[in-house]
Request: fold
Amino acid sequence: MNNLEKYNKAFMEILNVAELDLESLEYQKISAWDSVGHMQLIAALEDIFDIMFDTDDIIDFSSYVKGKELIAKYGVTI
Amino acid sequence: MEKRLEGKNVIITGARKGIGRASVELFAKNGANIWACAKKFDTKFEMEMYHLAEQYKVWIKPVYFDLADENAISTALYNIIKEKEPIDILINNAAVSYGTMLGMMPISKIRQLFDVNFFAQLQMIQIIAKAMIKNKQGAIINLASVSGMEVYIGNLAYGASKAAVIYATKQLSKEYAPYGIRINAVAPGVVHTDMDQTRTEEQMREVLERTALKRGAQPEEIAKAILFLASEEASYITGSILVVDGGRIDF
Reply:
């Protein structure tokens, strides 16, 4: 599984969304991506990519697309 | 003997002495593996941890970092998380004590005390809870103090820091409950540790006089309360402050 597939899988499993809906997905735009879902997602991504997000990046992680950009800061290319 | 924490993995700060040291021994005796956190490398401590691990057939890994250093905390915890062992229990035990009247206390000293007693606890929870979230379970025990519940002269910095711990414990228990993480605190009264040497003899006499059991606790007696809150026996307890003070605080 490549990094994009891992990234997508985390979103789909934790937020229970379809792959087709990922590109437009934003924080707090669906009920599953509330503050509780957000921390579950962050915890999963940290585990999958072996990184530890700075608190500022956890706050900035506002969408599926933005998340890709933030993860790149930790040397993970998606 | 039944091992109440068989196979559980625990982080304990302030593991070198006092309540932290007693907790390491009690948790190891109950089958838990331990990251034993202390400020500085120490051969004697290393040897003690090695022998305890051998004795109780668990692993105990000494980890060294300064709780006053935010970057050091992050690095140490990141290294623990990278081990990919589940983290089941966090014991935020380490604290420093400093007592005098406000007029004789530099504000910088109060900040330093809060860094260790309060902000480090928050940072530990912030990082370790994320690791617990993915396992959908965890138990965090913060060391508060009855000093955070009663008022006496000369106790401003320490008492305020422990009052902050009590508030944070209650508040965070609600924040982390959706992830299956329980957060509680133990609030000891007088405990016979090095930290307790900060009281004068007169102050100690006065405190023990209004303690129903008329004595201070041994660190092991506090460790037992911590163990209870960490165990399955406390599975429905979160946001509680367990007072272990020999009958000192009146409600």
Summary: The beta strands of chain B are 9-12, 33-38, 60-64, 89-92, 138-143, 181-188, 241-244. The interface with chain A takes residues 74, 78, 81-82, 126-127, 130-131, 133-134, 178-179 of chain B (CB under 8 Å). The longest helix of chain B spans residues 107-133. The longest strand of chain B covers residues 181-188.
